[in-house]
Amino acid sequence: MPPPLADALAARAAALRAELDLHAHRYYVLDEPGIPDSDYDRLFNELQALEAAHPGLLAPDSPTQRVGGKPLGQFAAVRHRLPMLSIRTETNTEASGAENFDNRVRKELGLKESDPPVEFVAELKFDGLAMSLRYERGILVQAATRGDGAVGEDVTQNIRTIRQIPLRLPADAPAVLEVRGEVYMRRAEFEALNERQRAKIAQGAKGEKTFVNPRNAAAGGVRQLDPAIAADRRLSFFAYGVGEVTPPEGGGPAFETHLQLLLTLKSWGFPVAAQTRLARGATELIAFHEAIGQQRDQLAFDIDGVVYKVNALPLQRQMGFVSREPRWAVAHKYPAQEQLTTVVGIDIQVGRTGKLTPVAKLAPVFVGGVTVTNATLHNEDEARRKDVRLGDTVIVRRAGDVIPEVVSVLLERRVQAAAQFTMPTQCPVCGSDAVREEGEADHRCSGGLFCAAQRKEAILHYAHKRAVEVDGLGDKLVEQLVDADVVRTLPDLYRLGFAALARLDRMADKSAGKLLAALEKSKQTTLARFVFGLGIRHVGEATAKALAGHFGKLDSIMDAGHGQLLDVADVGPVVAASIRTFFDQPHNREVVEQLRACGVTWQEGEPAVATWRPLSGLTLVVTGTLPSLSRDEAKDRIEAAGGKAAGSVSKKTDYLVAGAEAGSKLEKAQALGVTVIDEAAFLALTEPPPA
Ligand code: 5U1
Fold first, then answer.
1. What is the mean pLDDT of residues 577-581?
2. Count: domains in the chain
3. How far, in Å, from the CA of 313 to the mean position of ligand 1?
4. 395 and 320, same structural domain?
5. Which of 122, 388, 409, 433 lies in disulfide reach of 279, CB 3.0 to 4.6 Å?
6. pLDDT tens-digit readout, 531-542
7. Residues 464 and 510 in one domain
8. Which residue's alpha carbon is at the smallest distance from atom 3 of ligand 1?
9. Ligand 1 centroid vs 126 CA: distance in angstroms?
10. How many angstroms is it from 625 CA to the middle of ligand 1?
11. Closest residue CA from atom 15 of ligand 1
């Protein structure tokens, strides 16, 4: 006989829940998805529809109920049945930190030197917030923060949104089980959250902010009264211990060791960090501390140390605890990766490629294992986004070998109203214009060869075998020449004498002679090699060849306008602007003249047959009714002559072609001083030459 309908629906709901729980565990805890997202969504939707149609089937442990709750007015207080202990911290970050703990344990246990090593469990110390999860008859009934260890806050609604935390446990779980662990945020989720926050701020959302680190974002998420906001933080959880445990009638698993306990928690669906290990004696603790220290920056989440625990539970009980800290456990820290310090200045550093980087000068601070006095602010936009100012208190971060950076400013500690940061308009090293090209984040010094900061790079580039080629002028030698101030600009290379060279370290007479001969040889070059050798930004070998072929003469390249440069195959607006900026700097022209004066020569040629592009680089707007041309015909003529046809008048408009009844565009052009021409003048301008 088929089961009554109600039973069949309840059975289907139970089957769907079991299947969804299984796949959520595989996905969120084991990181091994078993079905595609779309299949999961289909099962989820079916369960949701079933529960909506039959509210009697709804259950608090249903996966559909993770974000079910309404915003709270405040959190209720929770008295922990067993206190939530904290952990003693070993701040000695060296290997001896582990030895100290091992010695203490051995002493407490009355072990002699000849006794075997103590068995420990070594775990990660997650940088999150401690949580106690209470399950009664297998159902999550309460999640509470540590608070003062005796009384915490009931944050169950928010914790239910964490997909890694089971809402229901398998049948072999104890009647009452409190799982202790850490709620944290994965780094990728933290970055994504801040990305979303930045987008909201950019759109003018009020009261939004970015978060300083994953721990703050996680703690803030747990303390949200609205569970929808907590859900949006996509928090995670690791289990590392238990509180109250009441075995089911007939007894439950009797744990002998801490490791056994962790493995059992894992079997009940809780995430336990994969790095957890058994370690015998101080030597293995030290090895664990070192190994995890190496992996620390590659982990998907922040840790601030490792934890050692005596493995045998009877020994733990024997040792007990002092003032809320067990004697059988310790957190062995790593050097902090974040510290507070103050900004004593903001300098501009000029890199070897001319990039200008704002750098915060800091009151010395020990962070990430070294003393830090500088932190990069990357570029103008970053410096302004973080709004770092002189005198500010800032959080500095140094993770692994990464360059230290300012994470954020503590605005509440800003005492003096220093000015907002602005990028200088001139290179602080050579005084050339600092240029930020369209679409680029960085400012660059346009000084090129003239700028001391870029000199070594510029000389090496000039001497490269695909450029002017000075055989034997490698980086060590260039370094010496520049550091000894023997070579300041490229022409100085050709002024080097035998005596000056022979004075350099490791420079034998023979090598000096060889270099002088190579320099002499390099004077005979080609225009393309010379132009490439100048190191103009965006001008690679192919572009240099195209420029040489197109113009034939160096002076023509140096004097070409933006529009003329655009006529060269391979040259777009960015490259054209870069060439112009380079030759607009008097120092760069001076260097070129001096190189020529030193005897650097090449065969000049005729310009390539000029293509007819009289409107190259110019923008025209057509308005009103022209006597003979339609709008489209006029547009075609502009483009055929190499110009750009625009729809509206602006400061960038070069000509307005005005016909009858020209209206507001004519008025605007006149107001802006744009040249206005009639159709006759336009036809004359765009008349192609006779074939
Ligand atoms: N991995 C781990 N973290 N952690 C933090 N274990 C662990 N144990 C703790 C704490 C506060 O406390 C117990 C030793 C009581």
1. 92
2. 5
3. 15
4. no
5. 122
6. 999 999 889 888
7. yes
8. 125
9. 9
10. 82
11. 85
Q: Which of 112, 125, 200, 386 is catalytic?
A: 125
Are 354 and 325 found together in one domain? no
Helices (H) and strands (E) in the chain, counts: 25, 26
85 CA closest ligand 1 atom index:
15
Residue 250 has pLDDT above 80, yes or no: no
> What is the rounded average pLDDT of the residues 393-415?
84
- Work out which ligand 1 atom sits closest to the CA atom of 309: 14
pLDDT at 305: 93
What range does the domain containing 509 cover?
434-438+444-597
Query: Ligand 1, from 126, 179, 182: best to mutate by most atoms within 8 Å of Cβ?
Result: 182
Closest C-alpha to 340, from 527, 496, 212, 490: 212
pLDDT of residue 3 exceeding 70, the answer is no
Contact 475, 372 (CB under 8 A): no
Q: Which two tokens stand for residue 431?
A: 């005084």
Ligand 1 centroid, distance to 240 Cα (angstroms):
6
Q: Which atom belonging to ligand 1 lies closest to the Cα atom of 238? A: 1
pLDDT for the residue 277: 97
Residue 249: the pLDDT is 58
Which tokens sit at 437? 């090209």
* Local confidence band at 401 (pLDDT 50, 70, 90 cut-offs): low
Q: Name the residue of 307, 322, 330 to mutate for ligand 1: max ligand atoms within 8 A of Cβ.
A: 307
Residue 529 in any domain: the answer is yes
Distance 329 CA to ligand 1 centre (A): 8
- CA angle, residues 225, 146, 101, in degrees to nearest 5: 145
Domain match, 573 and 528 both? yes
Query: Over pLDDT 70: what percentage of the chain?
Result: 97
The DSSP result for 10-31, as a single string, is HHHHHHHHHHHHHHHIIIIISS
Whether the predicted pLDDT of 348 surpasses 90: yes
Q: Quote the CA–CA distance of 342 and 416 in Å, as a whole number.
A: 12
CA of 241 to the centre of ligand 1 (A): 7
- Is residue 651 part of the annotated active site? The answer reads no
| One domain, residues 117 and 48 | no
Burial class (CB in 10 A: 0-12, 13-18, 19+), 9: middle
At 438, the pLDDT band (50, 70, 90 cuts) reads confident
Determine the atom of ligand 1 nearest the C-alpha atom of 328.
14
Q: Model pTM?
A: 0.62
Residue 349: pLDDT over 70: yes
β-strands 443-445, 524-525 pairing: unpaired
| Residues 172-188, mean pLDDT to the nearest whole number | 94
Task: Check residue 410 and give its pLDDT.
Answer: 86
* Percent of the residues in the chain that have a pLDDT greater than 90, as a whole number: 54
How much helix, strand and coil, in percent to the nearest 5, is found in the chain?
Answer: 40, 20, 40
Which residues form ligand 1's pocket by a CB distance below 6 Å? 85-87, 123-125, 130, 240-241, 307, 326, 329
